[in-house]
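The methods section describes the discrete structure representation at length, but only in general terms. An entry of this sort, consisting of the sequence and the corresponding backbone structure tokens, reads as follows.
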Amino acid sequence: MEYKAVPTVVARKPFDAVADSQELRGAMRGLGTDEQQIIDILSTRSNAQRQSISAAYAAEFERDLIDDLKDELGGKFEDVIVALMRPPVEYLCQQLHEAMAGMGTEESTLVEILCTKTNEEMREIVVAYEDKYERPLAEQMCSETSGFFRRLLTLIVTGVRDDLTTPVDAVQAKDQAAQLYAAGEAKLGTDEEVFNRIMAHASFPQLRLVFEEYKELSGQTIEQAIKHEMSDELHEAMMAIVECVQSPAAFFANRLYKAMDGAGTDDATLIRIIVCRSEIDLETIKQEFERIYNRTLHSAIEDSETSGDYKRALTALLRGA
């Protein structure tokens, strides 16, 4: 079944970058800041349009729009607005860098960003990361991760996955399913290298066929096999690939639910998914969230520990234009 990716944010028509830049300047001048005006403009323009607004703002006022927004805003609301203003690939590179900075590594963030991307998307991130941080992403990641988890991410980052243009091969899918079965359920212990090779090399459409063949062969789903055979970060990474192959919306709906579940909110994940998916499939994610959890994503955010302009900015992106 073909995945229907429906965004909540699309390009505004008609669009006037100069007029928008002037309104944003007006919202930040004088006493106080008109936060609602900033939300109303930036949540209903595409990222490409926001870049045009930023250029118009610099040309007219000889000021940097992101710097001015940072000066006027604060807290998590600022994080949402600045995330909206960054080009998507640059923003993801920044998120990856922060996940590996300082003491400890946020493996969950690496999984969410790296394991959900096609090879074409991965290439863009790899080039942009090295341009921005003057260090290859693979090198940085290798210093922050270990074991079979590191090997899987390294394969993904180095771009070994087949492109989407590669034809799906049913005969090969049977063979790959048999290899996975032989490497896991059919033996004592697990040959993680085989799982890594197939999960990192095959395109998502090819993997979809592999998983169907696996169930035919073993009588179990690939998820059940991974649960039995893997643990910790490698388990999380493998499951992310499987979920994104089958339904990216379900994967991100689950991530959003976990970000708001229990005491405290994982604001970084909440912001990253809502901002990054708003122009891709956030409408689809909303529908999937409601199907899985029997409540709307909007109501979940309303009832979460988010508040004020931060909450208003997130819910504005859910509504879109």
Q: What stands out?
A: The longest helix spans residues 47-61. The CA atoms of residues 77 and 296 lie 22 Å apart. DSSP finds 20 helices and no strands in the chain.
